[in-house]
Write a structure and sequence with these properties.
With about 425 residues, the protein is of the alpha+beta class. The protein contains 11 helices and 12 strands. It is elongated, with a radius of gyration of 49 Å.
Amino acid sequence: MFNYILQRFKKIVIRILSLLFFLTFLLMIFLYLNYRLNNKYPNPDTVYSYIENNKSDIYLNDINKGFLKEKNIWSIRLDKNGKVIESFNKPREVSEKFDIRDVARFTRYYLDDYPIFTYIVDGGLILFAYPRHSLDKLPSNYYSYNKFIFNIVLFFMFLVLFLIFVYIIYRMDVKNIFKNILPFQEAIDKLYEDDYEKLDEYGELKELAISINRANEKYNDLKESQDKWIRGVSHDVRTPLAKISWELSKENKEDIKTQNIQEQVLKISNILEGLNLTISLSNIDKENFIAETPLKVIRKVIVDKLNDNPEREIIFDNNIKNKDIKIKMDANLFYRMLENIIKNSLTYTFGRIRVVVNDYKNKLIINILDEGPGVSENLLEKISSGDLINITRHGLGIFISKQIAELHGGTFIIKNKYPGLEVSFIFDYIN
């Protein structure tokens, strides 16, 4: 686990550094695109070189005018006194004469918001003016070498500090991870031990602590269930085995009652079958359940029991208003759930048995009532708690029905009615 967390954290650091380099790459692209955009207009030195190379007796001849027109640049040439002696496309608002202050101003800044670039020529100056808002002029025409070196050193210092900062965070987080995970490691190592100590369920790893504690609780529940299963088997099988042993111990073999032995063997077989079913129910995949109407299963159980017991009276009250009710179910298990209850009533009571079905607020309610003496409160408590000791003889079928109901997402209710016993199943149905 620790190696996994360590590897994951290393990946996070690598991603941070990758992001840093990616941002640097984006910055380089940004600068490059700005450089390309800046090249939309020709370099002033290039313009001057072209004009100088193609001048005749005047600078702004037809060839140079054509070039300037193509580049959207206007130009004027001044004599030593600041008077315009040549011009091309000069705007009307631009003066025809400049003094030394004007020259100093537009050489360093702008001329009527036009970016101006000035060059010395014979007898004066030549000016090249670019369109407004096309270029920005920097007031400074120098840059300190020491400042440049200082900035480079500062940049690398910041980069080193950033890497050190990432490393410190990395070490702190790794330390905290080990500190927080160590109790979980110890808990997992002792998950199935008797000395397991429950984890505190708070903090950033609260969900993990809850999951580990629940796993231990499920293990303890399973262990307790297995203990109950073993105690139940040993307790309820002991009596039939004693009877079989007593029959076989008779000196006169002719006195051995084979029928008694067969009955006890059948009891043992039924006990083991029921107990195995209670264990197997926990492994059934509910995803395989399908939406079916429960009414067909209910009718089939009642008809089958009436055919097996024609002398008994089983009354079916169907009060369902929505005839298309369906629930997600396994038909065979649903049949067994109802059969166990009705079979118990047929075995241990002699009066009428009523099966009442209702639907109320998206609930399917099945009530099975008999007219017998009911069951002991101790047995009811054992069924509710899942205690299988001494339940296999009288209440295992009820317990299995309870398991099946809960497997279907339903609610199981059992209570004495004095007289009689009422068992209710409540399920959410699909509209």
